[in-house]
Amino acid sequence: MNRFVGKLFLRCDIETLTGLHIGGTKDSVEIGGLDNPVIKTIDGKPYIPASSLKGKIRCLLERKDGVQQSGEKGNPCGCGNCEICQLFGAHSDKNKTITRLCFRDAFLNYKKYIDLVKSLNFLDEEEIPLTEEKMENIIDRLKGTAKHPRPMERVPAGATFTTKIILNFYEGDDIERLIRKLWEGLRLLEDDYLGGSGTRGYGEVAFRNLEFSLKTRTDYEGNNQAQPIFEEAFATLQDADLKIDELCTEAEKALLAVGGH
Ligand SMILES: [Zn+2]
Predict the structure, then answer these.
(1) Domains in the chain: how many in total?
(2) In whole angstroms, what is the distance from residue 102 CA to residue 88 CA?
(3) Within-domain flag for 261
(4) How far is the CA of 102 from the centre of ligand 1 (A)?
(5) Residues 13-59: pLDDT tens digits?
(6) pTM for this prediction
């Protein structure tokens, strides 16, 4: 097995630009609650599960690159060789590869959110709803009226969630290509959507406050401090776009020094 050489960390916020609906289970909803609840943590705050982020970014990259589906129709790639399999794991029993990307759940920036809603609505904290309800329906083609109206719970625009994406590198990995492929996925997500009903305007998101740091194998043996790559956080993905070359160069320099490729 190829030896581990280090990790690139991307810590960032995800801001909702439109209402976000990532479905939760109805079990957790009290009687009289919404039919289509959003997923929440045990203390009732909406969050973005890591699996939603990972799955969506992978899917967008596979579509872009025209990657073959494996086995049953609709399954992710299982070749084990392409960058997408290296990053996200091979969906196959035969072609194993180490999954290099790890996503953390994205948790609501509660304080900031409460302040935002307060400034908009002049509500007291206990009155502030953490989600909104929107009616969705189908237009009757004959009468031109709405039918099957159903309420959808969603996180309103302006919420931010904090997450971390971790990219692991092993000896022999093409560091630059893996970073650039992940990057493509982030760009594609901003121009697509997260969660449900995206074609109807839900789930537009943007990355904010992007911070990059590195830990090499030797850092784990030493003082365990992540080394920041840039002095400041980037406000937007577009700002960070301008530094992608430098990011790749710095990551290669640090990882090559401990046995990267
Ligand atoms: Zn593949």
Answers:
(1) 1
(2) 8
(3) no
(4) 17
(5) 999 999 899 887 765 445 445 668 888 898 888 999 999 999 999 99
(6) 0.85
